[in-house]
Amino acid sequence: MNALIERVAPYATHMIRTDHAHVLAAFHQYQTDSAPRVKKGLVNTVCLALEVHAQLEEEIFYPAMRAVSDSDFLRKAVPEHNEMRRLITQLRNMEPTDAGYDGTFMELMRDVMHHVADEETTVLPEAERLMRDRLGELGAKMTRRRLELMAPRSGAMATNMARSLPATSIALAAGLVAGGVLLGNRLLSSRPHRFGSGTRTGASGRWL
Ligand SMILES: [Fe+2]
Ligand SMILES: [Fe+2]
């Protein structure tokens, strides 16, 4: 299993960018006039995805970066994740019909978009410059950890996706449940990835 994960896992920076893309796509699907059930499903799905993503970065990616860089972003990244967690808790304690629900989700969107922009323009290019030879190993570690983190949450994820719009479900399923279902399929088929000039060109961009 571990050897297979090492073969099929995306590079850490590819995984991070693709997670960002899926969450940003989900943000764009939030509409203030959607049915409360749909809003709740979408928000819960996004919150779960953000929590897992932040944990993977904090446990695996940021510590590896700190060993090679002292960038300002790395100092503020965890406090920014914590602010995101505060807003997530607030949203979980609210109903979509509450007056502040839309505003709180918009605040989360603004914070995450700002954080993602910083991450993608500073730390990810730096990672690719300073620790290129470790990105495959870190991607495999993050994939293994994602599987562990998603396993107990699969029931909640299914409920949230059933509540939200089909398009949302499709977009997010590709990125968020991928660590479990789609990776499982890849492992079962165990087809090797193609590699080209040091860059992993397999399914990383498609399913994580
Ligand atoms: Fe990130
Ligand atoms: Fe982050």
Total strand count, please? Answer: 2
> What small molecules does the structure contain?
fe (ii) ion
How far is the first residue's CA from the last residue's CA? Answer: 18 Å
Mean pLDDT: 83
Rg on CA atoms, Å: 17 Å
- The shape, in one word, is globular
Overall structural domain count:
1
Going by helix content, strand content and strand pairing, the class is mainly alpha
Helix content: over 70%
**pLDDT < 50 stretches:** 184-208
Largest sheet: 2 strands, antiparallel
Total count of helical runs of at least 4 residues = 10
Strand neighbour order, sheet with most strands: 1-2
Fraction of residues in β-strands: under 5%
Order of helices and strands: HHHHHHHHHEEH
Task: Describe the 3D structure.
This protein is mostly helical. It has one domain (2-207). The chain is 75% helix and 2% strand. It is built from 10 helices and 2 strands, in the order αααααααααββα. The protein has helices at 2-8, 12-28, 36-66, 72-92, 101-130, 135-150, 154-163, 166-176, 181-189, 204-207; strands at 195-196, 199-200. The longest helix has 31 residues, at 36-66. The two termini are 18 Å apart. Residues 184-208 have low confidence and may be disordered. The structure holds fe (ii) ion (FE2) (2 copies). One fe (ii) ion binds next to helix 2 and helix 3. InterPro entries: Hemerythrin-like. Residues 13-126 form the Hemerythrin-like domain.
